[in-house]
Amino acid sequence: YPTWKRTLTRRAREAQMKRFCKAQAIQRRLEEIEVTFRELEQKGIKLEKLLRDEDGTPADQKTQWMNQLLYLVQKKNSLMSEESDLMIAVQELKLEEQQWQLDQKLRCYMNREESLKTPEDRAAEQEILVQLLEVVNKRNVLIHIQEEKRLSEL
């Protein structure tokens, strides 16, 4: 087995492991965001009840509660934005994995001698190329979405 093939195989495994670790980190963060959402929701409910029920409270206390409520809404919005970014990252990881798998299949067909390829092999190779282009286009769309989101946040 030539050294370059071993190197390529090792690098492919490393890239796959990186994608896996990144996916796990994203999943953990999404779960943390979900817990934080619930906590913010509970705090918001308490503040709303305080604002509605306390008619005899001083105005400065009501203002403080209102500011706390607005802060909770702002924090929830920033978490929603982060969650959206993470969901895009998940899609990107899925597409990277799909692209890697298609690339491996394509390499198998391309490594064969042209004279040994059957018409079915050539058709399969073309189909894989089409699928690969679709995946690359989907990744491109995700990049555009991220860029538009970043620009709108600025």
UniProtKB/TrEMBL annotation:
InterPro entries: bMERB_dom, F-actin_Monoox_Mical. One of its GO terms (molecular function) is monooxygenase activity. It is found in: Membrane. Keywords: Coiled coil, Membrane, Monooxygenase, Oxidoreductase. Residues 13-154 form the BMERB domain. It comes from the Eukaryota. Residues 23-50 form a coiled coil. This is MICA1 monooxygenase.
